Amino acid sequence: MAINWDALVIGPLEGIFGEPLTYMPVGGVLFTTLGVFDDAFHKNTFFDDGSVGVQTTSPTLGVRLSSFTSPPLQNDRVFVVSVNTTYVVREVHPDGHGWAKLVLNKVSSP
Fold this sequence. Notes:
Layout: H1 5-17, E1 19-24, E2 31-46, E3 52-64, E4 77-80, E5 85-94, E6 99-108
Antiparallel strand pairs: 1-2, 1-4, 2-3, 3-6, 4-5, 5-6
């Protein structure tokens, strides 16, 4: 039995935790959608011996790929309404089920 991830998991997740944003694809037309924003996502980089070498904190945005007419790409921009800030997409990490985590860099805020 195939699982409809978009209908059963991703859609409800976006409906509960999503917040408004304006997405500005490079060379495309901007559009409004929802995303799950996290201003303090922690990532650890480990040494070969298993110890933590570097810890970084980056803003991230989880997005429902079915909301996009073309996949999100590096250098796209996104305006997150709740923090009144524009970010550029640094990395795109699709999960294989219709969701992607976008690692962001801050561009501007008033």
